[in-house]
Design goal:
By secondary structure, the chain is α/β, with parallel strands linked by helices. It has 4 domains: 2-140 and 281-292 and 340-408, 3-Layer(aba) Sandwich (Rossmann fold); 143-278 and 417-456, Response regulator (Rossmann fold, 3-Layer(aba) Sandwich), CATH 3.40.50.2300; 477-526, no CATH class; 538-716 and 758-800, Rhopdopsin 7-helix transmembrane proteins (Up-down Bundle). It has 23 helices and 24 strands. The strands form 7 sheets. An 8-stranded mixed beta sheet has the order 7-6-8-9-10-13-14-15, sandwiched between helices. A hairpin with a 6-residue loop joins strand 23 (676-680) and strand 24. Helix 2 (62-74) runs parallel beside helix 3 (100-113), helix 18 runs parallel beside helix 20 and helix 21 packs antiparallel against helix 22 (758-789). The longest helix has 35 residues, at 601-635. The radius of gyration is 50 Å and the shape is elongated.
Length: 803
């Protein structure tokens, strides 16, 4: 087992003129060693197996990282690619590196040999591609996850117009590119991306000039820091932001550490939001780290170097003492043999909780557990050498480490974890404070991934800043993109007629659902249902009362005819046909009620068909009466052959045949395409017409056409018989009644086609009532006048009188 690490020093004796060893990074090595010793003492992990290690320092250099890997693979002698001088030591895998750029080149080489690698600091999203890097695993979430967390935070506060400051290195480039991808998906626009040197004081003036120019022109209030932002960059930003520049910074996890060492320079970061990974307390590690000193590690040159820099202790290396004095101007003294690294102080050597150090510790345990499974379990279906088994078991790893945390890799080779979201606050005494105000955990369901407690947040200017390229469009308006600018920059125009936008910042207007309509520019209200309602429509009530009146009136006339059926007037008009005709007129008035009220399937099917059959019976009866009058007159002549046609059979046959044809038409119509109720929302913007769809306009036209044909024939026959002697003649009355019927229904067709909604029903009701009243008035009113008002005329003698 080996570890590559990203330190600011070289354990092989790098010149102190160029590097300064950091105690916080040295702590990573100690945690690595502690974890291996702890595993070797644990009888439950790898019994009878002792783990060893080889530690090298990449110094954040790609070339040195590759050289170190080749050295480990070749053995302790000279580097010989594709050849190992190791006799008994077996390489299990590699732990490291802390940076993505070195980890990427290490895994490229290890893939050739099939070894697995667990990084405790790499976050580049490209490393999660398991087709390309099947043996790479990482304890941190990738840049994709962090960018998703940042974007969701931006969306939470409505910040759609941001600037990005990224370190001009591989890490800054990778994070900024990943952020660009995520912002496109979530409709957030980046106003500018400022690339700054990761750590190059020679370009400070250039960076400052660029920063001032960009920051002064920028309208975005939110700045996201990506990559490893140098101390110089933060100082430059502080200088640029003087004068009350209203910027709020969102700092990625990689840049948080720099802020901690710049309390006096970072007043402009007041109120900023910082992402950080959770820290852990590791059992017994604090005691181990606090006891590290020259007594228990006398030959550790890196420890001596750190004590020389931070505690001014002479080392056993005379050359190193001279270099430290010349490079840093430090006079070294003899220190007590009991001196410990913890004497440096907790600011530089913190041992209570651990961030990256914990990930080193966790990576060691992950490698050990995978080796344990590969050594002990040896599944029968898994063929291949130990390298393949290690990769297999790392993918399926699941255990609890000594801190109690579940350790496993997801399908992309990442260990699931969450981000703290901290609010950075500077108090009056220049002390800084990080206050946790939220968390992001990608492993949770989407609606629970981001949790924010706004009540705990401190804002630089007392309120949540606004960061949008364009002001929100008011309700009733929609966006149009401003020419040549980002999609977040737009103008607002009013919605078109019939469209609304009911929220501010609505991307576009929309039409209301079919059952609703816009009552203005920002609200859809339910459409009114229009039909001839019995409850709240006065027209329906009027028609109902009038129809009931006509029904009663016709019933009274029928009663009169029944009561006076033996009188000459009734007999002369063929009482049986009169009874049938009056019953048909009564039914026609009842038929009107089918056109009132809410349309349902039954009423829709009965409306037109019942109307057609009832009127066909009525008109067939009128036609029979006309023909009988004509034949009766002809039969009075001596020797006439018309006498044999007179009788009940011929009249019944005429009525039956005339009505039966309409019944057949109605049955065919109801069988093929019956009428049905429908909600018509296309006629009016503010209401829905509840109507009957006729199903087949052809069938409806045939039904009306047949009625018209019967009426026309009746009119023609009655017209031809108009000159018969008055005493025997109903033809004139029938002529006028058929003239009324034909006039009404001829006028009905254009009127029916030209109106909409419930007016079509009213037109048809008017046609039914008018034609029925026309027949009733023209045929029966004169007879009722004679029967009631002039009974003296109701005699056989008067009827036989010639004019």
């Amino acid at each position: 087992m080996t570890s590559g690490r990203d330190l600011d020093t070289d354990t092989k004796g790098a010149s102190p003129e160029t590097v300064v060893p950091l105690p916080s990074f040295y702590r990573h090595i100690l945690a690595f060693i502690f974890a291996i010793d702890e595993i070797n003492r644990n009888p439950n992990i790898l019994p009878n197996v002792t783990l060893g290690y080889h530690v090298t320092d990449s110094c954040n250099s790609i070339n040195l990282a590759i050289e170190n890997v080749l050295q480990i693979l070749s053995g302790p002698q000279d580097i010989v690619p594709n050849y190992s001088c190791l006799n008994k030591d077996k390489l299990v895998g590699v732990i490291g590196d802390q940076s993505s750029k070195t980890s990427l080149h290490i895994i490229e080489m290890l893939n050739v040999y099939g070894y697995s690698q667990i990084s405790y600091g790499a976050t580049d999203s490209i490393l999660t591609n398991k087709n390309k890097y099947p043996s790479f695993f990482q304890t941190l979430p990738s840049d994709h996850t962090q960018s998703l967390a940042i974007v969701k935070l931006l969306r939470y506060f409505g910040w759609t117009w941001i600037g990005v400051v990224a370190s001009d290195d591989d890490g800054g480039h990778a994070q900024s590119e990943e952020l660009k991808k995520q912002t496109k998906v979530h409709d957030i626009c980046i106003e500018f991306i400022l690339k700054v040197a990761a750590d190059d004081a020679e370009h400070e003036d250039i960076t400052l000039y660029k920063s001032r120019e960009i920051f002064n022109k920028a309208t975005s209030k939110i700045i996201v820091l990506c990559g490893t932002i140098s101390l110089m960059t933060i100082k430059s930003i502080e200088r640029v932001c003087t004068g009350g520049l209203e910027k709020l910074f969102i700092v990625s996890a990689g840049s948080v550490g720099q802020l901690l060492s710049l309390i006096k320079y970072i007043t402009s970061f007041q109120g900023s939001l910082l992402f950080s990974l959770p820290t852990k307390k590791i059992p017994y590690l604090k005691k181990f780290l606090d006891e590290i000193g020259l007594v228990n590690r006398p030959s550790d040159t890196l420890l001596q170097h750190i004590l020389a820099i931070y505690l001014k202790c002479l080392t056993s290396d005379i050359i190193l003492n001279i270099l430290v004095k010349e490079s840093y101007g430090i006079n070294l003294y003899n220190c007590s043999k009991n001196v410990k690294i913890s004497d440096i102080g907790s600011k530089r050597y913190y041992t209570n909780e651990f961030g990256t150090t914990y990930h080193v510790y966790k990576a060691v345990y992950a490698m050990a557990h995978a080796l344990h499974d590969a050594t002990i379990l040896r599944p029968g279906h898994l063929k291949g050498n130990q390298k393949q088994r290690m990769k297999y078991f790392l993918r399926r790893l699941h255990f609890q480490d000594p801190t109690g945390e579940d350790v496993h890799f997801n399908e992309k080779g990442e260990m699931t974890t969450y981000y703290h979201i901290n609010n950075f606050i500077i108090t009056n005494n220049t002390n800084n404070r990080f206050k946790e105000v939220g968390r992001f955990n990608k492993s949770l369901p989407e609606q629970y991934q981001l949790l924010i407690d706004t009540s705990k947040m401190f804002w630089k200017h007392g309120e949540i800043p606004l960061s949008k390229c364009s002001a929100d469009c008011r309700a009733g308006h929609q966006r149009i993109l401003a020419k040549g600018l980002h999609k977040c920059c737009f103008e607002c125009i009013p919605c078109s007629n019939g469209e609304i936008s009911n929220e501010s910042d609505q991307g576009s207007c929309f039409r209301c659902p079919e059952d609703q309509w816009p009552n203005g520019i920002n609200q859809c209200v339910p459409k009114t249902m229009e039909y001839l309602s019995y409850i709240d429509d006065p027209i329906t009530l009027t028609i109902s009362v009038f129809t009931l009146f006509l029904f009663l009136k016709t019933s009274i006339i029928l009663g009169i005819f029944i009561l006076f059926r033996d009188t000459p007037v009734v007999k002369a008009s063929n009482e049986n046909l009169s009874f049938i005709l009056l019953a048909s007129i009564i039914l026609s008035f009842i038929c009107v009620l089918l056109f009132l009220g809410r349309p349902i399937r039954v009423t829709c099917m009965l409306r037109q068909t019942s109307l057609g059959i009832i009127f066909s019976v009525a008109i067939s009866t009128v036609l029979a009466k006309t023909i009988i009058v004509y034949m009766a007159f002809k039969a009075t002549k001596p020797g006439s052959s018309w006498k044999k046609f007179l009788g009940v059979k011929i009249t019944n046959c005429l009525v039956f045949v005339g009505s039966f044809i309409q019944v057949v038409i109605s049955i065919v119509w109801l069988s093929i395409a019956p009428p049905f109720p429908e909600n018509n929302s296309n006629l009016y913007a503010d209401k829905i017409i509840l109507q009957c769809n006729e199903g087949s306009m052809l069938a409806f036209s045939i039904l009306l056409g047949y009625m018209g044909l019967l009426a026309a024939v009746s009119f023609i026959v009655a017209f031809l018989a108009r000159n018969l002697p008055d005493s025997f003649n109903e033809a004139k009355n029938i002529t006028f009644s058929m003239l009324v019927v034909c006039s009404v229904w001829v006028a009905f067709i254009p009127a029916y086609m030209s109106v909409t909604g419930k007016n079509t029903v009213l037109v048809e009701i008017f046609a039914i009532i008018s034609s029925s009243v026309g027949i009733l008035a023209c045929i029966f009113y004169p007879k009722c006048y004679i029967i009631i008002m002039r009974p003296n005329l109701n005699s056989k003698c008067n009827l036989l009188k010639r004019i």
